[in-house]
Amino acid sequence: MTHIHRADVNAPSPTVAPATTRRRSGVSLVEVLVAVSLLSLSLLALARISPLMNTYGRKNDMQLNRAYVLQQQADRIMAMPDSLISNTGLTGSLVTGTKTLTIQGYKWQRTVSMTNSSGMQKIMLIMKPLSVSTSLQKPDTLILWRAPTSTCLLNTTGTC
Prior knowledge:
By secondary structure, the chain is an alpha+beta fold. About 35% of the residues lie in helices and about 20% in strands. A hairpin with a 2-residue loop joins strand 1 (about 95-105) and strand 2 (about 105-115).
């Protein structure tokens, strides 16, 4: 009697070579394409935001200059002695009316008006930028109240 041996089912076939799973170093073409696509999308978003940030920067710079110029002019007026405020004939005195100034590289139109009320001087200062876009040309108005230096506002006894 001959014995028939069953072949091992899990044994590799002698005609088929065993599969080798060898890991290759480096990145695949698909990984490179995904990385380049993500990079290009982020660069496009940055390029789209850049002009907007430039516009905001210019507006903020103009707002800073507006505040600076208005404060500078107000300080100048408040530091003037009474003789230069009330007598417009003196050199360096405060002149009412409209005048064009160049401050910080920008042209400004300064309008000053004065009125006296109850011993106080009301000085209205209007500063309007001239060398910027029309959306930023809104004037800034500041009202200053000055008492003559010879007047004691807080004095209740009648003597200074």
